[in-house]
């Protein structure tokens, strides 16, 4: 089950302070759909851009997680268990990356309501899911390159096994 809160964020100024709502320790259920504007006009991120959700929790720990740029130009960000680990006001923004260019939205806030009781307390820590994703992507690329090099070396060894073979 999921709940999606919709907000609009301006790129050039913080016109209105935006708040989203969350409950402490909720997980895989709360999302924000963000429409970006530039001087009040809808802004659609460039085709190759990526988006990150960044936040600072009341206890000083932070989260940087990937956000999804949807086909209609809106951005979806998940409020993970770590984002919602600490009761109080979480300061957040969305950062767009396109090559070397970085563009961030106005700040918005997440009001995290304390749960009345919890059998298990989640320890608030820094969360950098986007770094884990990039490490996994790099590992997959290295494995693919290693496989390609191994295949090329095998082919070269087979060719070298026939010293009189002439390639045309």
Any descriptors?
alpha+beta; 1 helix; 10 strands; 10-stranded mixed β-sheet; 168 residues
Task: Give a short overview.
The protein is of the alpha+beta class and 168 residues long.
What does this molecule look like?
The protein is α+β, with helices and mostly antiparallel strands and 168 residues long. Helices cover 19% and strands 39% of the residues. It has one helix and ten strands. It has one helix at residues 129-160, and strands spanning 3-10, 18-23, 30-38, 41-43, 50-56, 62-69, 75-78, 88-98, 101-104, 108-113. Strands 1, 2, 3, 4, 5, 6, 7, 8, 9 and 10 form a ten-stranded mixed sheet that branches. Strand 5 (50-56) and strand 6 (62-69) form a beta hairpin. The model has no long low-confidence stretch (mean pLDDT 87).
What is the topology?
Layout lengths: L2 E8 L7 E6 L6 E9 L2 E3 L6 E7 L5 E8 L5 E4 L9 E11 L2 E4 L3 E6 L15 H32 L8
Parallel strand pairs: 1-3, 2-10
Antiparallel strand pairs: 3-4, 3-7, 5-6, 5-8, 6-7, 8-9, 8-10
Number of strands: 10
Overall shape: it is elongated
Low-confidence stretches: none
> N-to-C terminal Cα separation, in Å?
63 Å
Note the total helix count: 1
Mean pLDDT: 87
């Amino acid at each position: 089950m999921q709940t999606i809160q919709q907000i609009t964020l301006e790129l050039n100024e913080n016109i209105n302070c935006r708040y989203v709502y969350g409950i402490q320790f909720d997980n895989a259920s709360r999302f924000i759909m963000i429409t970006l504007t530039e001087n009040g006009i809808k802004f659609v991120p460039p085709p190759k851009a990526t988006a990150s959700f960044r936040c600072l929790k009341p206890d000083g720990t932070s989260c940087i997680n990937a956000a999804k740029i949807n086909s209609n130009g809106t951005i979806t960000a998940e409020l993970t268990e770590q984002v919602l680990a600490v009761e109080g006001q979480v300061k957040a923004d969305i950062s767009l990356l396109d090559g070397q260019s970085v563009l961030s939205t106005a700040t918005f806030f997440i009001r995290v309501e304390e749960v009345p009781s919890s059998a298990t307390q989640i320890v608030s820590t820094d969360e950098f899911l986007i770094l884990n994703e990039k490490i996994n992507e790099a590992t997959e690329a290295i494995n693919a390159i290693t496989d390609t090099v191994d295949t090329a070396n095998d082919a070269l060894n087979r060719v070298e096994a026939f010293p009189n073979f002439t390639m045309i």
